[in-house]
Give the backbone structure.
Amino acid sequence: MPALHIIPIEGIGEVRPDDRLGPMIINAAAAQDTPLMDHDCLVVTQKIVSKAENRLVPLDHADFTARAEIIDSESVRVLRRRGDLVISETRHGFICANAGIDLSNVDSGFAALLPVDSDRSAHRIRNSVRAEVGVDVGVVVSDTFGRPWRHGLTDVAIGVAGIAAVVDLRGGTDDRGQALRVTEVALADEIAAAAELVMGKAAGIPVAIVRGLEASWFRDGSVRELIRPAQDDLFR
Amino acid sequence: MPALHIIPIEGIGEVRPDDRLGPMIINAAAAQDTPLMDHDCLVVTQKIVSKAENRLVPLDHADFTARAEIIDSESVRVLRRRGDLVISETRHGFICANAGIDLSNVDSGFAALLPVDSDRSAHRIRNSVRAEVGVDVGVVVSDTFGRPWRHGLTDVAIGVAGIAAVVDLRGGTDDRGQALRVTEVALADEIAAAAELVMGKAAGIPVAIVRGLEASWFRDGSVRELIRPAQDDLFR
């Protein structure tokens, strides 16, 4: 079985509203001698997607009332509050802290909201790569979320194009020929987590290539596969 | 910044009680021309660790009463029950389904319990590699857990040796010079998730090498870093 390679893409530079991320990624990858290939999966951080899509809003970071108002307006339901921390559900169905609003790595006086439709953001990058260089890639838009019970943040998928979000092995057999019960793997979340290992918060690397994934995982996908229906969820 | 490589180790073969995993991994890695190197991180699935440590117990898979009794005996606290599904806290502090008891990939008539002390399991492999071939590796013992809110399973760390479980970037600055607020990254969980991308449930690959991680992340670590204190947790 071949190895998997996770290749950081450097030199993307500062992203501004209405920048086209596809060409920026293509050029930066080519400039470092790792041109994109079929069945690569690009992982692109939410931050540059939100910037390119002009999802920055003015916010005085010290104004906690204004901050709370933005969080409320970006939430459809609040699960828990403690002090300044709000755990809420976004319009996309994500449950996360502060509605995914990002204050770091943004110009002082601004906050970055989540993309309106992050699957569409991923599709836009995928389509751009196909149109510009004729290469068929998967795209995962990633963000950094906390989790209950476990300390520390991990990167997860908030948008997906051209690759499965969940790989459903239900009904397969394990290596002893026994039926496997529960084998729906959150592929896009694991890809996002893997990419984070080369991106790092402070290193200014907003994109990575994950190269060597199973060819059969590249299909139409949506981040909606990763949202657990409320009636199946014991922790709301 | 260099790429990260995730290399599956094939040919480990069937693991039996009292097998020494360190030499088995060393030999299988050497046999496929990827001998272990300093600052490699080995990811080893719980299943072979539990087998080597003789954590198999007899269980008729159709006997739901016996199954429930084992889950109870492996749990310190039950958070939720629905039908056959129990979400409970193990002695290690992990919150997971069915106390982490594993029925797949185990001989029919048996179940695999979690290692008693999975940090110690990781240390044993790390020490063995150092003693046999003089190479300094990190070790993550991984298992497959569900999560609230998000559909699909991901691999997480249940034991750690020689590498940080959480990388604490608190107090650093981002690439715009602003103070970062929340930047404790669940490194060992992201490593486990990355490794799962080459292991796959049905492929019979129980170990992977993650090569190219930051040298500074290799230090004394413990899976206890990943357990969120109950008083900080809004979802118990």
In short: The first helix of chain A runs from residue 21 to 31. The radius of gyration of chain A is 18 Å.
